[in-house]
Amino acid sequence: MANFDVVVIGAGPGGYVAAIRCAQLGMSVACVDEWKNPQGKASLGGTCLNVGCIPSKALLESSENFERVSHDFAAHGISATGVQFDVAKMLARKDKIVSDFTSGIGQLFKKNKVTAVHGRASLAGREGEVWRIAVAGSEALLARHVIIATGSTPRALPQAPLDGTRIVDNSGALSFSDVPERLAIIGAGVIGLELGSVWRRLGSEVIILEAMPVFMPAADEQVAKEALRAFAKQGLKIHLGVQIDKVTQNKKEVNIAWRDAQGATQELLADKLIVAVGRTANTQGLGAVDAGLKLDAAGRIEVDAHCRSNLPNVYAVGDVVRGPMLAHKASEEGVMVAELIAGQAGHCDMNLVPWVMYATPEIAWVGKTEQQLKKDGVAYKAGQFPFMVNGRARALGATAGFVKILADAGSDRILGVHIIGAMASELVQQAVLAMAFSASSEDLARTIHAHPSLSEVMHEAALAVDKRALHI
């Protein structure tokens, strides 16, 4: 059996990054992963690269370009007639991007001397200081340290069992061979809204059914309200407070029987149904029970602030532990654990994890929301500025939304930043960096921002905290 300093189970954003960082720090590393691509070949990168973050953004970009040329270019004096869309080419482009990235991880493994092993891995006991890792279809591995990064899987909805054709999860929704005329989505989270936006732009009538009585409860309330208005204006039909009673199908369509927020019985007929009701930690088949690995009530591995499990030298990162199920959070936890194993001071601040929704307009935030500050009784002040009066936003034709900055009423330290608007995913990084160094809104307000740029909206919002915005 091959012997390693570290065996990483899972090659998603948490696992492959942890493996590379361990190798950079001089450790011998193996990374075990069972993912296969549609052709049946091993494919590194986990959900994010194969059927998540990367392919969904590829489709978002394609659909946005189609909408721009079909509806927005006329304002620029650009006329286009007979615009057509080729779904097969869009999917081929998406698949090429995925293939390039997944093979790229393989190259990174070779460069850093990480041994890639394909198969399903599980904890198979410990002898002295060494863990034995069983790998289905392959030789067992030995390791002094184990990092579990097995990610998550789509949550099942008993009323709507997946068939991979008409009723699908996020993976199936990335591969529709043609544009469904009527698309139903159960779940108004990130996956449902992003994929709904893709197919709506390409011509689908999209109806989203959400169980929660409020829209985007994790976001700032004001941002959520603005987003709901924007999505409704675009044509997404979103129903809140929904209960799904029964889902049936025939050879032509899916029938969803549901009740609205008032309890009235409704019926929805659709060509396709996407089930996007969240994700669950992928701890099945790890040998957790036999090994004595503690799981919480949600099936996640219990860890401390440094991602240590209750078992000696066994760590867990990413979707399989507490906290937001976000790729960048998983990667930073992977780096932290690698550095801790190497005897360094690994660090991952869970209070500074940015959240992003790649819709139009984009939505991003970091830190506390207004409703959280009110609930906690924290005295704060707020500054807000719209994209509408920003020169770069006007030039881009992307004037929807605003930036809101929340700061402590006494110290002026920034407590949260909330953005809905163009390039929110990029702008939020300025907020993360500022908060990482305990910056005040005054610090941000005193920093020179390039003109004309979207970042000026952040600058003006910081000025607005002290009620001295210059351009409104």
What is shown here, in short?
The protein is an alpha/beta fold and 472 residues long.
What does this structure look like?
The structure is a single chain. The protein is 33% helix and 25% strand. Strands 1, 2, 3, 4, 5, 6 and 17 form a 7-stranded mixed β-sheet that branches. It has a 5-stranded parallel β-sheet with strand order 8-15-9-10-11. Strands 18-19-22-21-20 form a 5-stranded antiparallel β-sheet, with helices on both faces. By secondary structure, the chain is an alpha/beta fold. Helix 1 (13-24) runs parallel beside helix 9 (327-341), helix 3 runs antiparallel to helix 4 and helix 3 (53-72) runs parallel beside helix 6. The protein has 14 helices and 22 strands.
The number of strands is 22
Shape: globular
How far the N terminus sits from the C terminus, by CA atoms, comes to 69 Å
* Beta-strand percentage range: 15-25%
What is the assigned CATH homologous superfamily of the largest domain? Answer: FAD/NAD(P)-binding domain
* Tally of DSSP helical segments: 14
Give the second-level CATH assignment, the architecture of the largest domain. Answer: 3-Layer(bba) Sandwich
CATH fold naming of the largest domain: FAD/NAD(P)-binding domain
- Largest sheet entry: 7 strands, mixed
| Oligomeric composition of the shown chains | single chain
How many independent structural domains? Answer: 3
Low-confidence stretches: none
Q: Compute the gyration radius: what is it?
A: 24 Å
Mean pLDDT: 97
Q: What's the helical proportion of residues?
A: 25-40%
CATH class of the largest domain equals Alpha Beta
